[in-house]
Structure formats: structure tokens, C-alpha cells
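Colleagues,

For the teaching module next term, I've prepared a clean inverse folding example: a structure given as C-alpha cells, and then the sequence designed for it. I'd like students to try predicting residues themselves before seeing the answer, so please don't circulate the second half yet.
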């Protein structure tokens, strides 16, 4: 199989996918095997090995699936837990991965810290490997409640974790170190190293050093993380093959200088590298790089020459066999896809570039092309300035930042903290680079938002991108290269135009918890409307309780949902009224989307939050429109009319924000819709008085099902068949109120609820469509 292990890797991947996704993938495998046999690429013996590997991965994946389950009932309340890592303390929340020794089960634990004094004590004394007796309750992890959204439950399940332990009390007097092992010792060294860097390195250098030395990115400011991610250089903040190679090289040369023979140093590296993988957190990119180096060193020791393509293929097969669920990990996917593309392109494509910057540009381009389908699947967009950003940052990180961080860390340790002057100079460089990253990330339209690709689109990418590399490899002149270069652009254009010219439209009531956010997406790209953007109610709290990156509805739910649908432009953004559970997420939408028009109610006094949004929207070149009853427009078969507020035409004075809500009627997808904001009884009465013969099919229940809305007289007047309630799970207001649910039942209205069923979606073509919910 020498030089042919890449086919074995493909067989192992297809075996894994056959087990986890669909048996029909077996057809793809047998077509591949038949093709390789017919073209004499593989002998009959090698093809038999291929089939054995394929079947072995199916059986291994089936075995993993069968045994990936909990042994806990969920009713347990007393636990003996062991900290598997350093506890993360963010504000008043402590989170940590733990082991239950008596059950041999992994959990994630959460603890709400009670006081600032307790926080300091836990920060100073709670360590990796500590065993504690605690009381608590087991909670099921949350699943995705919106289409394409991240499922924390699936993420944990793929790591064999099925419960979140909500700890009631965590007393250090109930904690002690009871067991010791080599792995635990290494993890303690890691913890001490991280704490040393936090204590001795400057504000911006310390988090970067922790990321580059110990593979822990949690300490880096979220603004910096977002900037690096947006311009496509986030990989520089993770330990990769470059880091492993550089460290191994430095360690090897140090040993040679100390008089140790090459053979002995090779043997020492074979022992040290796995320990280094544990020390750095054992992320997929680290494990890939470490085990590739181990295979190379072992082959060298055995004097058995091996190709790099075979090395990465063997490591891939072994990794997938040991941990089948790793296939779901984005880091694993990106690490192997990018590394393989570089290995395959290096002998022919990359050798053509003699100039260093041209080579870096080519490497960056190869990496970007290989990563496109993975980035789109997980993050819905690709950066169009990443190649330029990599051209700036990669040489700096590889030749300056990484070596200097390692040298400063070692120097500071050896001199007892005497590197302050050098660290202060280095801090200025890091601050400057972070500033450059933020500047580049602020460039408008620096990313192409295409949404999550469909299965067909994934196949298109997986066919056209390798075809592009093959064409580039064979190209003898610029014309051939340009022709092959059209292929990845063609794939992107196919997905873009499939979004733009999609004949289907949709209306989705996004699950934003206790709030409202509704997307109206018209067919053929004729319009994207957003009604509100949810929002988290903020309460005054002590500084020590503040989280570094608190959940924010717009940033964390609405914007990712829109991007997953391939939406980067909002034609009309309706802010029905000024309550924070409707407009709290609007700032993120205006920041991340191209909003053409922000539509505000003319019927109520503008709040300070709305004034701030207006300023923000104007800075982003959005039009500000004030709307009132009578405003209407049509697009294709869809018609819209604003029914309320009535402005000053009828002398109405709204005593509160709620009755000043924008009420929008829409005739879309063959149904009549009424979107009511937080309209209350007075507003409803005015509405049915002004429109006495008004009938609808779908009613967005006002004010999340508050008992002050949705009266008998209103339901009798509009006579809906379906009602949608947007409310938060177990919300403090008791929405929807039992009285409202009783009224809806009395009028035989079918009710859909985001707190019970997640996002509610109506997909339509022409005048017919289908409702669906995210949760069964």
C-alpha cells in the first residue's frame, strides 16, 4: 500500500460516514474501489485491504454508537467529582469538565459563585485533579432550537457527555487531591504554566502566550478572537504543525548541543511528543501534528522511507478508529483538510514559487480553497481578505511571534521574572497586530455570506475544488490555470445564485427566548424583512459578577441564523417598539448585516435605546423610516400593510410602548398573517374598531401571551386558524398565561410555541406552503 494510504483514509472516512449518516454511502465506496481496480491504481490485494479497512471502520463506529450512552438515571443528587482540567471562572459562573469515579462517566459541571470572597478562594485553590464531594442536580444539555444552530447537546454527546451537573454548594473543605498519575501531573504543570503567564506577562501578551504555548484560547479577549476569525487568521491562535515542528526542532538541537546522539534524541522525542500533546490540551490539530511527527520519526528510526501523504493518511485512519465521533469536530475537519491539501500540492504546485511572499500567498490560497466547504458548513461565510491577512500575519507569527513567545517564556522562567523590559516592548507589538486585525475586520463586505450548503452543494464543492487543484497541478501556462481557477468560483456562484433565485420563501419565528424576532424571506431574493431581534434583559450587577462575553441574542442567535440562510442584507428591519426583548439584539444585526431600512413606530415616544440604534443605523448608512397605519407595499404575489400605530391622524395618545407597537398585516404564501408586537387590550380594541371585517389565517400572539392581550373580542374579530407564541422557556413572567391559552382553545386555534417547539417555520412556493417546528 506504499503511496496508496490516501485511498485507505478515504475508505475509513466512508466507513465512518456509512455508519453515522446513511447506508447509501456504501455505494460511493464500492464505486471508488471498482474505479481504482479498473484503472489499475490498486491491485486486488490492496483493494481487499481497502474493503477490510472500510468494514472495520463501520464496525468500530457502530460499536462506539452502541456504547455512547449514560449510566446515570438523572435523579442522583450526591456526587464525588474529579476535576479533569482547570476550572474556568467567568464572572460569577464556574464551569469545568469532571469525572465521576464511581460511575466512570464524564460530565460538565456548573456552579454559581455566591460572593467575591468565594470567587477568589476558588480561583486560588481549586485545581486540576482535585476530588470534591458535592450536592447538585443533573440537567439535560440544551439542544438546538433554531435551524442550523449549534447544538450543545450534540457537541457534548459526541464527547460522551450526557449531563450538566448544577452544583448547589462547592466547599473547598470537601475537596482534596486523592489520586496521582502521569497525565494528572502533566495537566497540573499545564495549569501552573498558564497561571505563571497570567501573573508575569502583560495584559495582551499573556493570553496570546497561553494560546501558543499551552493551546488554551479562552483567555484571549473576545473582540480579538472575533477580529481574527473574521479575517481568516484564527488558526494562528492555535497550536499547529508549525508550532510542533518548531518546538521539536529546538528540543532536538538542544539535545544534540548537549552531546546526545541523534538516535537517542529521536527516541527521546518519541517519548516526549505524546506528553507534549497532553500538555497543550490535546486539540485535534495538536494530535494530528504530534502523531504525524511520531510516524515520521518511527519510520526514520526503522529506516523505512515514507511519504507525507501516507503519514497523514495513517494518522487519520488511526485517529478515526480510536475516536469515531471526532468526525463531527470542526477543528479535526479543518486540520486534516488543510494539511492534506498542502502535502498534496507541495511537490508540484508550491514548488513553482521561488519568492517567499509568493509562496506564502500560494500556501494561503491552497488552505483557503481546502477550507471553504468546512467553513461554510460551520460558520456560513468565508473571508475574502483572508489571503491578504495571512500574507501579513503568517510571516510575523511564524518567524517572530511564536519564537519570541517561547524564548521569552523560557527566559522569564530561568531568570526569575527578569524579562519585564523585553515583555513591555513585545506587548506593544502584540497590541499593534491586534489593532491591525480589528482594522481589517472592520472593512465592509470583507466576508461572503453564503449560508450552510445543502448536501448537493457540498458534493459540488467536493468535486470542483479537487478538480481545481488537479487542473492547477497540470497547468503549463496561465490560460490553463485561469480555466481551472474558474471551478471554485463557479461553486461559490452556484450556491450564491441558488440562494438568490430560490423559488421558495419562508417565514420563521426565530426562538430568541423571551422576546420576538421574525424573518420574512420572499422568493427569488425579492426581499428579506426582519421584525425585531429579540434581546436579553440587562440588570445592574456587581463588577465581579460580570461575564467576559455574556450571551447576547442578536450576536449569538439572530445573526448566525440569518447567515446560515445565506442572508447578508435586510431590506426592512422593523423595530415594533422600544422594549429590550424586541430591540436588544438590533445593534448586532445592524453591525453585521447590510440593513437598507430601519422601520420605527410613529405611534409612541422614542426610547433612549431606540435613539442609540438610530445613530448606529445612520453610521452604517441605513435609511430611517417612521411608519404608521396606512403604509403599504407589494412585491410579486406578496402584499404588506401597516395597521397600527395610527400616528397623529386620529388623535391617539399611547400611554405605553406596547400599544404603540407596529402591527403589520402580510399576505404571503397564500395566507393572511398578522404580526402584533406587544399590542395590548386597548390597542387591539382600536385595531378591530378601525378594521371591522378583518380576517386572518396566522396570528402572532401579542406580548408573548400576556393576559393583557389576545382578548375574546379580538379573537372573535380576526378569527385566526393558527397562532404562534414567542416566549422563553420557564420565563419569569409566566408567559403564555393560562387565560390566553384557554381563550385560544375556546376559539379552536391551533397553537405553535417557540418555548415548547423551538423555531416555527413556514416554507412556501406560490400560494401553498408547510409549517414545521425545530423540536418535535
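(Answer key — instructors only)
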Amino acid at each position: 500500500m506504499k503511496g496508496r494510504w490516501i485511498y485507505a483514509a478515504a475508505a475509513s472516512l466512508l466507513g465512518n460516514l456509512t455508519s453515522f449518516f446513511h447506508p447509501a454511502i456504501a455505494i460511493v465506496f464500492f464505486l471508488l474501489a471498482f474505479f481504482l481496480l479498473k484503472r489499475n491504481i490498486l491491485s486486488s490485494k490492496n483493494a481487499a485491504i481497502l474493503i477490510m479497512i472500510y468494514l472495520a471502520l463501520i464496525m468500530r463506529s457502530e460499536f462506539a454508537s452502541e456504547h455512547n450512552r449514560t449510566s446515570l438515571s438523572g435523579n442522583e443528587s450526591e456526587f464525588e467529582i474529579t476535576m479533569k482540567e482547570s476550572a474556568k471562572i467567568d464572572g460569577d459562573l464556574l464551569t469545568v469538565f469532571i469525572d465521576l469515579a464511581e460511575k466512570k462517566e464524564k460530565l460538565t459541571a456548573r456552579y454559581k459563585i455566591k460572593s467575591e470572597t468565594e470567587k477568589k478562594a476558588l480561583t486560588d485553590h481549586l485545581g486540576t485533579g482535585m476530588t470534591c464531594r458535592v450536592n447538585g442536580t443533573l440537567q439535560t444539555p440544551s439542544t438546538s432550537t433554531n435551524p442550523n444552530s449549534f447544538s450543545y447537546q450534540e457537541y457534548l454527546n459526541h464527547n460522551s457527555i450526557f449531563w450538566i451537573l448544577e452544583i448547589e454548594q462547592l466547599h473547598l473543605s470537601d475537596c482534596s487531591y486523592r489520586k496521582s498519575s502521569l497525565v494528572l501531573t502533566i495537566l497540573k504543570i499545564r495549569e501552573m504554566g498558564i497561571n505563571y503567564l497570567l501573573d508575569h506577562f502583560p495584559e495582551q501578551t499573556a493570553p496570546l502566550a497561553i494560546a501558543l504555548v499551552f493551546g488554551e484560547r479562552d483567555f484571549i479577549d473576545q473582540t480579538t478572537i472575533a477580529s481574527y476569525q473574521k479575517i481568516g487568521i484564527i488558526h494562528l491562535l492555535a497550536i499547529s504543525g508549525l508550532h510542533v515542528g518548531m518546538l521539536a526542532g529546538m528540543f532536538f538541537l538542544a539535545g544534540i548541543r548537549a552531546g546526545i546522539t541523534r538516535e537517542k534524541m529521536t527516541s527521546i522525542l518519541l517519548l516526549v511528543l505524546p506528553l507534549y500533546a497532553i500538555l497543550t490540551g490535546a486539540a485535534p490539530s495538536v494530535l494530528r501534528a504530534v502523531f504525524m511527527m511520531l510516524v515520521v520519526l518511527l519510520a526514520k528510526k526503522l529506516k523505512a522511507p515514507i511519504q507525507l501523504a501516507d503519514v497523514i493518511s495513517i494518522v487519520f485512519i488511526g485517529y478515526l478508529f480510536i475516536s469515531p465521533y471526532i468526525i463531527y469536530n470542526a477543528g479535526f475537519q479543518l486540520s486534516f483538510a488543510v494539511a492534506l491539501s498542502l502535502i498534496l500540492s507541495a511537490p508540484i504546485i508550491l514548488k513553482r514559487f521561488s519568492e517567499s511572499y509568493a509562496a506564502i500567498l500560494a500556501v494561503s490560497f491552497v488552505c483557503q480553497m481546502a477550507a471553504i466547504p468546512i467553513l461554510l458548513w460551520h460558520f456560513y461565510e468565508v473571508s475574502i481578505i483572508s489571503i491578504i491577512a495571512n500574507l501579513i500575519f503568517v510571516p510575523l507569527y511564524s518567524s517572530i511571534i511564536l519564537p519570541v513567545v517561547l524564548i521569552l517564556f523560557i527566559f522569564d522562567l530561568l531568570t526569575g521574572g527578569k524579562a519585564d523590559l523585553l515583555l513591555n516592548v513585545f506587548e506593544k507589538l502584540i497590541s499593534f497586530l491586534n489593532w491591525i486585525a480589528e482594522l481589517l475586520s472592520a472593512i465592509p463586505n470583507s466576508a461572503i455570506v453564503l449560508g450552510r450548503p445543502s448536501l448537493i452543494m457540498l458534493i459540488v464543492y467536493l468535486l470542483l475544488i479537487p478538480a481545481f487543484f488537479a487542473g492547477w497541478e497540470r497547468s503549463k501556462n496561465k490560460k490553463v490555470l485561469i480555466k481551472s481557477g474558474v471551478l471554485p468560483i463557479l461553486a461559490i456562484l452556484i450556491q450564491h445564485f441558488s440562494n438568490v433565485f430560490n423559488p421558495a420563501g419562508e417565514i420563521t419565528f426565530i426562538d430568541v427566548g423571551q422576546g420576538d424576532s421574525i424573518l420574512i424571506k420572499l422568493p427569488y431574493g425579492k426581499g428579506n424583512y426582519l421584525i425585531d431581534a429579540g434581546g436579553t434583559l440587562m440588570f445592574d450587577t456587581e463588577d465581579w459578577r460580570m461575564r467576559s462575553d455574556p450571551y447576547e441574542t442578536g450576536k449569538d442567535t439572530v445573526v448566525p441564523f440569518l447567515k446560515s440562510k445565506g442572508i447578508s442584507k435586510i431590506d426592512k428591519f422593523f423595530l415594533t417598539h422600544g422594549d429590550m426583548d424586541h430591540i436588544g439584539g438590533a445593534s448586532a444585526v445592524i453591525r453585521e448585516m447590510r440593513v437598507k431600512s430601519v422601520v420605527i413606530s410613529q405611534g409612541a415616544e422614542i426610547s433612549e435605546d431606540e435613539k442609540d440604534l438610530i445613530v448606529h443605523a445612520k453610521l452604517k448608512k441605513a435609511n430611517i423610516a417612521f411608519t404608521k397605519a396606512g403604509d403599504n407595499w407589494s412585491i410579486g404575489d406578496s402584499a404588506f400593510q401597516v395597521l397600527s400605530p395610527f400616528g397623529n391622524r386620529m388623535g391617539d395618545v399611547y400611554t405605553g410602548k406596547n400599544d404603540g407597537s407596529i402591527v403589520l398585516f402580510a399576505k404571503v404564501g397564500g395566507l393572511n398573517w398578522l404580526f402584533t408586537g406587544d399590542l395590548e387590550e386597548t390597542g387591539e380594541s382600536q385595531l378591530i374598531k378601525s378594521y371591522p371585517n378583518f380576517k386572518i389565517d396566522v396570528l402572532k400572539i401579542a406580548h408573548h401571551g400576556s393576559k393583557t392581550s389576545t382578548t375574546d373580542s379580538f379573537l372573535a374579530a380576526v378569527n385566526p386558524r393558527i397562532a404562534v407564541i414567542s416566549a422563553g422557556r420557564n420565563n419569569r413572567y409566566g408567559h403564555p398565561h393560562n387565560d390566553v391559552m384557554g381563550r385560544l382553545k375556546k376559539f379552536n386555534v391551533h397553537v405553535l410555541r417557540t418555548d415548547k417547539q423551538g423555531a416555527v417555520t413556514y416554507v412556501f412556493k406560490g400560494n401553498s406552503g408547510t409549517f414545521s417546528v425545530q423540536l418535535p
